[in-house]
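Record type: ASSEMBLY
Status: queued
Input:
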Amino acid sequence: MFRNRLVWLALVGLAGPLLAACTPDADVAPAWEVPGATVPVNFPAPVYPVDQNPPTREAFELGRTLFYDPRLSRTGDISCGSCHQQFVAFAHQDHRLSHGVDNRLSTRNAPALQNLRWRRELLWDGGAKHLETMPLAPITNPVEMDETLDGVLAKLNADPTYQRRFEQVFGRKPIDSQQLLKALAQFTAALTSSNSRYDKHARREAGGELSAAELRGLAVLRQKCASCHAGELFTDESYRNNGLDAAFAADSGRAGITGRPQDVGRFKVPSLRNVALTAPYMHDGRFRNLREVLDHYAGGMVESATLDAQLRQSGSQPGIALTEAEKTDLLAFLATLTDEAFVRDPRLAEQ
Amino acid sequence: MSFTLSAAALTACSDDKDATSATPAPGTLDIEVSHVVGSAPLTLNSSTFYTTASGQQFKVSTFNYYLSNFKLKKADGTEYAAPESYFLIRESDPATKAFTLKDVPAGDYTSLTFTLGVDSVRNVSGAQTGALDPSNGMFWTWNSGYIYTKLEGSSPQAGGNQQLVFHIGGFKKPNNTIRTLSPSLNGAVVQVRNGRTPTVHLQADVLKMFTGVTTIDFAKLSNTMGGPSSVLVADNQAAGMLRVDHVHGN
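Status: finished
Output:
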């Protein structure tokens, strides 16, 4: 199978230049490839490897259509893309909490969707344990899309265009849940953000020059934030209580999944990539901008039984000691994590 | 490509020769399950109540569970693990109460082992199909993973709306509810041969979910979806819910 793919790619590779040679240079468009099909050189090995659901243009485009299709919700009003907008790195601009069908409100802020190939667990509490089965959570959640899996499949199977496209990709019918979930994963796995100015700096590429303030900010981040926002993905994928509240009656976070008292108030450490775009912040969207976030870390934390040990290391007040100058430098650096190519990639946009 | 093809063709020829001279052809094994409540057959939505060992009354509206990862062992210790052996048994669908393990190596088997539930790997392997399709209603979406046993019904002793909801699942410590069972064959030998299909007849007793290691009191526990309470029920199930009733030689 793999050998056949290589042969096929080699043939395409040969035919490509021959064909291109016959057309004027001005008409030659860059070859269309599925976004995120290549692992960035400065990234670790992905959790969801590329060969598990090998990207093809037809399957990716089918996944994209599904992602932007409001028929995945019970009322036909809410698509995945409703709460995950490309221009803000697939987060939900201005909305503290996710909006579902019939104007229902979730208890949580819609997170940015990016670099999902590298995620072991998804959602703020890690309840979803695989990229392919993850969409079942928002599709069936009563305050999000409030639909059933059978309901979605019935709508898709009643649509001749979907019937044709699914059969083209999977070679069998009717459309079943495995096809739906694998097609959606073709799109969500493609959401790779790896071309920020920081990335070019890390890979020593052109366009990767950082200012003195940005470099100082990077140093502060690596020294004071990287025990949680670790590595090139800027998260260690752990769950932590970062001192937002003294009690967590409304949302116990990770404890809702594990049932363990030590997990009360713990939420997933998010990546900092594209963080300048993804306001508001925290699992409940309580902070409107990054200055408020830094102020919280520097002096706004409250005690609770499960407050993270990393945040108890400086004196009597929990938090991270940050001067005003360090905050300014951090804000400058965080802006270098914005990936304009990602948020403007027309291949990822609603068509 | 042509090299690969001819190599495969040569291999296939020599394989065939070996197969005809040495290894006997594989056979199949049928598994049948029946459901009882103590000494009575299980009837969904029955007109009268069943009674637990501690005297509580209940009715059953849904009874589904997974059996998976079947293994057969010979007296000499050699074991055969049936690949892709995942079966969802539903009381409401008689067709699910009999299934077949195909391509079982011929032999005399003295031990049968299987999982009540779904192994942890398949809980985190992405979109599945067949018995493991999430469309079967045996998959949690908010804390993703399979429901290994789903028993629903009612009891006058249960609090609130008197509903019984026992969704037993979860694969992470300390609330792992996967149980591997090796019920006794009672001395029977399962003889698998080409052209001769033995049948192992299993019996699942619903009452054993509520008694055994821990006696379940519906007044205190009528609703569980994973977690520590589900572990209590899983331990009860492992202690004897499934037994081998008899083996047909055929």
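Annotation: Residues 2-21 of chain A form the longest helix (20 residues).
Annotation: DSSP finds 13 helices and two strands in chain A.
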